[in-house]
Every structure is written in C-alpha cells, then in structure tokens.
Amino acid sequence: KMDADDDDSPQLSSHTLAALQEFYLEQQQREGVKTSQGFNRYAVGSIEEDWQLSQFWYSDDTAARLADEALAAAGRGGRIACVSAPSVYQQLKDRAGEDCSVCILEYDRRFSVYGEEFVFYDYNHPLNLPERLLPHSFDIVVADPPYLSEECLQKTAETIKHLTKGKILLCTGAVMEEPAAKHLGVRMCAFIPTHSRHLANEFRCYVNYDSGL
After folding, report:
1. What is its main location (predicted)?
2. How confident is the model at residue 95 (pLDDT cuts 50, 70, 90)?
3. DSSP H helical segments within 82-149, as ranges?
4. Residue range 115-135, pLDDT digits in tens
5. Who has the most CB within 10 Å: 11, 71, 82, 108?
6. If DSSP codes are grouped into helix, strand and coil, which group holds residue 102?
7. Mind listing the pLDDT tens digit for each residue in 14-40?
8. What pTM was estimated for this model as a whole?
C-alpha cells in the first residue's frame, strides 16, 4: 500500500517523459560532437546562454569588434579584465596570443573551465575579489552588467573602478546612459552592439577614453 506522500508525488505523462529523454539524448549528442571535433572552448556560444542568469551572448562580429577595441586600448603586454562579459573574453583568448593577459569575472561557475583566469564574481559584493586582482592593475576593464538597473550598474561600477588603471569599456542598455555617465564618467559610442538573439532593449557601448567605436 502506498503512503500519503506517494499519492501526492507528481507524475510525468508518457509523452512528457519521452520528450525529456529525447532532449537529454540530443544534448549528449551535441556534447559528443564538441568533443570529437576538438571543439573550441573559447568560441562564442561554446557555453550556452542561461536566460535565468540574464545571459545574452554577443554576435560573433560584435564580440570580435569589442575584443579588438580592448586589445588596442590595453596595448602590447596589457592586462584586460572582462566583468560579466564572457563573449568578449572568449574572443580575446582567440585573438590575443601572448600579447596580453586576460581574466573573466563571472557569477556562472560553468566558466571555471577557463582555469585560473576565471574569477567568481557576484555584483552584490563588488569588492569581494581575490587578492591577486590588485587595485588599478588592469589597463582596461570591459563590463556588461547583467541587469538594466541603476543598482546593478552602481555596484558593478565599484568593481570596475577598483580594477582599472583608467580605461573603461561598458556595454549596457541605451536607457542607462545617464547612470553610466554618473557612476563611471563614460559617454555613448556610435557603435551599436548586437546579440546572437534579438533583444527588445536597445544596447549601446560607452567609453571614457578616445576610441574608434
């Protein structure tokens, strides 16, 4: 005889269960293809977006353009920090070679596959950073705060100002132009970033230095 707890347990229909099994099989097959083909772990999209974490990857063209901009701004032998901007980090690793060092600050621990260059980061604790990230030790900080709110931008700005020697490249919504200027002293660029999936909000880039964007 089943007890009361068993009676209350939700049961998946046979159709739902079959669909779920098919999904997991396709996922395993995709991972198998990645492994068998020597999949580039630095390719944009190698780690899929998690919308619950407000993740929206840039298009390849945008990620490449921002990476080139960061490399030019940092200079040869420079240091670049990517705060909540994994698409740019991935393109930087694909382009930088030994010319500069890069690190990625991210809340999503899936990016720990990048080893020592990965730094767990929670914008709610903007200065909770490892000692190896010395103050004002990066030639440029590239940042894309996960949420379009002044609170998120303000806290992320604390991290950015702690890390950068001066140069800032910020990507966020056009609606954040005034808060971005207030908290980081950045101005909107002509370049308009695009994402691999269409977003309802207009995105823009902001800098505080002379830029080609």
Report:
1. cytoplasm
2. confident
3. 86-95
4. 999 999 999 999 999 999 999
5. 82
6. strand
7. 666 666 666 555 554 444 434 334 445
8. 0.75
Q: How far apart are CA 102 and CA 186, in angstroms?
A: 22
Q: How far apart are the first and last CA of the chain?
A: 70
Count of domains in the chain? Answer: 1
Within 13 Å, how many C-alpha atoms sit on residue 163's CB side?
31
The CATH number that applies at residue 162 is: 3.40.50.150
**Residue 53 is assigned to a structural domain of this protein:** no
Strands (E), the chain: 79-83, 101-106, 118-120, 138-143, 164-173, 187-188, 203-207
- Residue ranges making up the domain that contains 153: 58-207
The SS3 assignment for 127 reads: coil
Question: Which residues 6+ apart lie within 8 Å of 177 measured at CB?
Answer: 188, 204, 206
- Please report the sign of the dihedral spanned by the C-alpha atoms of residue 181, residue 190, residue 60, residue 148: positive
Tokens representing 89 are: 């980090």
**Structure token pair of residue 28:** 């395993």
Return phi, psi of residue 26, to 5°: -60, -40
Inside any domain, residue 39: no
H or E element at residue 166:
strand 164-173
**Distance (Å, whole) CA 25 – CA 77:** 44
User: 203 to each of 148, 170, 174, 189, how far by Cα in Å?
Assistant: 10, 11, 5, 11
